[in-house]
Structure prediction request, 65 residues.
Amino acid sequence: MDISIIFKLAAIGIIITVVCQVLKKSDRDDVATVVSIVGLVIALTVAVTMIGDLFGVVKDIFGVF
Prediction:
């Protein structure tokens, strides 16, 4: 695991926030909601992948099958 994962999640958050603000200012609230949900799904996918890797490392350390 690396600190670059934190930067990736922060970048996703910043990009999604900017896009949502631009869409809300142009009266496209429905599209802004969809974009925010997609951003949440992307961030959760990255987090779940990291948690899966963590469980794999723990399993290898303790020799659990």
Q: What stands out?
A: The two ends are 22 Å apart (CA to CA). The mean pLDDT is 91. The CA atoms of residues 14 and 61 lie 36 Å apart.
